[in-house]
Amino acid sequence: MQDKFLASEYPQSAPEQAGFHIIPVPLEQSVSYGGGTVKGPQALLAASHQLEAWECGFAPGESGFFTAQAVDCAGPITDTLDRIEAAVAHAIACEAVPVVLGGEHTVTLGALRALARQAEKTGEPFGVVQFDAHADLRPQYEGSPFSHASVMYRAVADLGLPLTQFAVRDFCREEAEIRKKFNVTHYDAYFLARVGLPELPLPEDFPKNIYITFDVDGLDSSIMPATGTPSPGGINWREAQYMLERCVAGRRVVGLDVVELAPIEGLHHADFTAAKLTHLIMGLAHDANQKEAQS
């Protein structure tokens, strides 16, 4: 039986009355090192029962949580992406913020497609804010254009979305060139450690509406070992919190995801960290969106 996000603190809201739609997507098709992302959403949901109702003074659950049924990830990846897109489109129709729980990073593409269609209707563009150890800008990887290593290339090349990256530390020469081609803003892990983060990290012309995608391997492997490619040299918890705060300031969060959790049996802290991270981003999003609505 599927858990509901933070059901220990909040009753499940009806879809039309929830401020957030939590959408589990247990996808694992193109992982290229360690596996286990198929179990990530359920582990995160189970760990969420140990969270407090408040996170850093925010209580996003007061706006209502609706945890949708897990997206069916059987069959071709194109079909799975269609189903993710439909689930996110339903959240948008309910005027809720979609929160996608992966699963491998490919799940983000389905969400971005739904939001891109909405942006076409409203005329309000959005940009993508990515936290990740990897650039994910390969046109294809291991023969697939829908690999987890290609999801951000699909975002910038196919959907034409502005992109800003944080904490990247593992990428190839081709991805460095693609960054230049598509004008991708980036604050790589080495830069952040040596120079630090500007007060206003997003470019001046970056869209006011943003989608946050957080691959948990963006965090340092010492605090997040439960992921397919745990990489040293990542950001710590407080750094992630500070960067997220700076990114959402004065903006509207139209959606978010937390992906690539690959639970390790008996290692509770990683699952809890992923759940706490999800709750934190929702809290920051709820606060930012309220301030934007009142301005």
UniProtKB/TrEMBL annotation:
Keywords: Hydrolase, Manganese, Metal-binding. One of its GO terms (biological process) is putrescine biosynthetic process from arginine, via agmatine. CDD domains: Agmatinase-like_2. Binds 2 manganese ions per subunit. Transmembrane segments: none annotated. Its cofactor is Mn(2+). Belongs to the arginase family. Agmatinase subfamily. This is Agmatinase.
